[in-house]
C-alpha cells in the first residue's frame, strides 16, 4: 500500500554536464601515439600528435573506432616499404 516515491530522472542533466560526458580518447597504433579523439556533437574530432597524422587533423569522425581506423590506415600507408627499395635490397651482387 506504499506508493513508490517518484525519483527525478537526472540522466539528461548529466549528459549536459561535462563531468559526465564521454571522455577524450588517446589513439595509439602500437607504440605510436597518433592523436586524440575529442567528443563533440555528431562524433569525435581528431587532433594529431605528430606530422605523420596531420592530414587527419580536425576531421570529425562518427566514432572513436572510425578515427582509430583512419589513423591505422594512415600509419600503414606511411610505413609500407616502397617496392623499388625492397627490390634493390634483394638484388644479387
Task: Please state the average pLDDT score.
Answer: 82
Q: Residue ranges: pLDDT <50 for 5 or more in a row? A: none
For the biggest sheet, the summary is:
4 strands, antiparallel
Give helix % range: 25-40%
Physical arrangement of strands within the biggest beta sheet: 1-2-3-4
Radius of gyration over C-alpha positions, nearest whole angstrom = 22 Å
End-to-end separation in angstroms reads 95 Å
Describe this structure in words.
The protein has 93 residues and is α+β, with helices and mostly antiparallel strands. The chain has a domain at 21-81. The chain is 32% helix and 24% strand. It contains three helices and four strands. It has helices spanning 11-16, 64-79, 83-90; strands at 25-29, 32-40, 43-48, 60-61. It has a four-stranded antiparallel β-sheet with strand order 1-2-3-4, covered by helices on one side. A hairpin with a 2-residue loop joins strand 2 and strand 3 (43-48).
Amino acid at each position: 500500500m506504499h506508493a513508490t516515491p517518484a525519483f527525478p530522472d537526472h540522466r539528461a542533466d548529466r549528459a549536459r554536464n561535462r563531468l559526465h560526458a564521454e571522455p577524450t580518447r588517446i589513439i595509439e597504433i602500437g607504440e605510436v601515439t597518433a592523436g586524440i579523439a575529442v567528443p563533440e556533437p555528431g562524433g569525435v574530432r581528431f587532433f594529431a600528435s605528430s606530422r605523420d597524422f596531420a592530414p587527419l587533423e580536425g576531421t570529425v569522425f562518427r566514432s572513436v573506432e572510425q578515427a582509430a581506423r583512419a589513423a591505422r590506415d594512415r600509419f600503414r600507408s606511411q610505413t609500407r616499404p616502397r617496392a623499388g627499395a625492397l627490390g634493390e635490397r634483394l638484388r644479387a651482387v
